[in-house]
Amino acid sequence: MVERRTPIPVAEAIERVMRYAGVGEEETVPLRQSYGRYLAEDLRADHDVPPFDRSPYDGFAIRAADSEGAGLDHPVEFEVIETIGAGQVAKQPVGPFQAVRLMTGAQIPEGCDAVVMLELAKQYERDGKTYMSIKRSFRPGDNISFQGEDAKKGQPLIEKGTRINPGVAALLATFGYAEVKVAKRPRIGIFATGSELLDVSEPLVPGKIRNSNAYMIEAQVLKSGAEPIYFGQLADDLEACFHAVREALDQVDMLITTGGVSVGDFDYLPAIYERLGANVLFNKIAMRPGSVTTVAEWNGKLLFGLSGNPSACYVGYELFVRPVVRTRLFSTKPHLKKAKATLGADFPKPNPFTRFVRSRVEAVDGRLIVKPVGMDKSNIVTSLAFANALMVLPGGTRGFAVGDEVDVWLLDDDEGSSE
Amino acid sequence: MVERRTPIPVAEAIERVMRYAGVGEEETVPLRQSYGRYLAEDLRADHDVPPFDRSPYDGFAIRAADSEGAGLDHPVEFEVIETIGAGQVAKQPVGPFQAVRLMTGAQIPEGCDAVVMLELAKQYERDGKTYMSIKRSFRPGDNISFQGEDAKKGQPLIEKGTRINPGVAALLATFGYAEVKVAKRPRIGIFATGSELLDVSEPLVPGKIRNSNAYMIEAQVLKSGAEPIYFGQLADDLEACFHAVREALDQVDMLITTGGVSVGDFDYLPAIYERLGANVLFNKIAMRPGSVTTVAEWNGKLLFGLSGNPSACYVGYELFVRPVVRTRLFSTKPHLKKAKATLGADFPKPNPFTRFVRSRVEAVDGRLIVKPVGMDKSNIVTSLAFANALMVLPGGTRGFAVGDEVDVWLLDDDEGSSE
Hints:
Two copies of one chain form a homodimer.
Chain A: H1 10-18, E1 26-30, E2 43-44, E3 59-62, E4 76-84, E5 98-102, E6 114-117, E7 122-126, E8 129-134, E9 156-158, H2 166-174, E10 179-183, E11 187-192, E12 197-198, E13 209-210, H3 213-224, E14 227-233, H4 238-249, E15 254-258, H5 269-276, E16 279-282, E17 287-288, E18 294-298, E19 301-306, H6 310-328, E20 337-343, E21 354-364, E22 367-372, H7 383-386, E23 389-393, E24 405-410
Parallel strand pairs in A: 4-5, 11-14, 11-15, 12-13, 15-19, 17-21, 20-22
Antiparallel strand pairs in A: 1-10, 2-9, 3-5, 3-6, 4-8, 7-8, 16-18, 18-19, 20-24, 21-22, 21-23, 23-24
Helix pairs in contact in A: 1-6, 3-6, 4-5
């Protein structure tokens, strides 16, 4: 018998899954190993930035008051009493008509309140002493980076859940985070199902195809920030399947099966869910592809039954698994980033259900243009490789034409969306 | 004395560097470890896709000719002689008014040339035999995915130099690439210089700041697809510096120093280049920030002398080092991806030289809008963390205003640009 299933809207399916998204765990890693991980706590300034008044230029520190009256015909002379590099501190306070030669980044010497850029001063020796003169006046504060003007000690700078990119790494170093609290990567178990599947290293035989979904999903798991654990292919035997799934669940935070969730006759997954006593959240969604996606929950762990069709499997991961992963990575924007784009090609098919079209978004003259990839049959196989967005066409719409504005969900934007 | 330097245009600086970009090397990794690596050879179909005529639906395979004349009032009956799952092959050829029940993905049995979708057929038993009937006719080819319609054996599908994303991983698996030839990650040595630098784990002391550039650059190296090797901080001694640089060069494909390349008095790098006999490609560029960037070449290895200023250092990496890395990863689009965007905030500063402004690009109603990050002084310190683009303002221009169209170079787009 064909099992009856009641489709629910995509938004409701996502909402039902997110109720069980759970919370993340944290771990500590050395800063040098933190690139690409997600912050488990807000990054705060542990000191004022700059930590002291400093010079943004190579030049001379002076007391601005001494420069009063300087002009093209009235140079004012200063005795250069010391030279300090970045990281050095002046040995003595600076008095009237004295100056300190200093490098970019050096601390402003006591008594000084302005910096003269090197190229505005004329330096010379006289009687074994060093002097410099200037032909314009300076005001207190000129060319000084003041302590705390970039950030005050204790100020939160970056929210937890943010991915550590090179700029964040620089901030972590600046603020002394030799060790960084990051989100633990959720462990995601993966089973492939389908008696038609050959391993990647097996030669082709009639009627069979190689298992590609497992490798695709592993890459999606890594891309989303989690850790894949591949358990191999489920056997064609209910008893063996049940025990394999039951044992895998103890080792992972969530579990994905690909394939075997169609309305076909040979699907064991509903029986496995029942025997586990799992709470099936839904088993049909009003969407294409991926309508037969099933998600169940068991002891707080999610079981994702993704379609065996590669495109449906791909979309299922991005819509339902990714936001759970990102929530565990402390993101408040766990969903794919959303944008509007202009259709760059006709899409004449009607859409009885919400349709997710593998697409490519390009910026052309500052506007986002979206085109489906794999419209030509010859490209179907490569469409996922070239897609950087899902074009989302609402159910109940007829075809769309060049120039129409459509919604796109971006696959390669790491920032995400809160809903 | 202050060394005299002659600035060259940005485009010329990039061109001079790219002359020494060199060529990549390849290595073989298991498919499972290939995510995020770059293909070292074109990915080709090793077989037709689909590899045989197959059914895209659950249903019944028939001979279309037998359905002729079927209609709402004239059902045509077929005997169901066999049931095959995906991966199975029919045991016998199909004769007139016979059908085979088959699952999505199953091979079309010999003799059949159309598939009836499950929901269009009525199935029943009679006298111990299984039958199904249909009330419409089918044409030859209906609901069949033909062998080779997605890809022909031998057809190149993905260019070398492409990053392995989940879709590419799926293709590699489909075509039996259990091992994948990928580009070796270039090894990039990193030295920090600057007597003002403290290690990230050291407490702050007057006049000093923590070394953040080394960690930032390491993350940029990883992001661009290369392997960083940090050699620590160069000592304040020319002889020791020279030997450290000379020894490091034997262990890496290229070398980065950050800091110590200013026109300040304490810079040893020009002396080191001279003693090495390195060919200095340029030591000043007509750009902000990063005008004092120096690049030299020694025995085919590039030495990048990036500024100690974090923003200049960051920009220097993306403009000069990244395209070299990507060339070694076999990309034909090694440079940052370029786009046009509309300014979302005034930028009143004049631009005597080409200016690269740390910016954030967002798609708003399908248009790219760019805003500088870190315009407010309080954000300077976090500007690199939030930037996803460099806004490029040509030298010789006055300020720009809201609504102006400007060039942006995208920092997070992996695809890149050929120039």
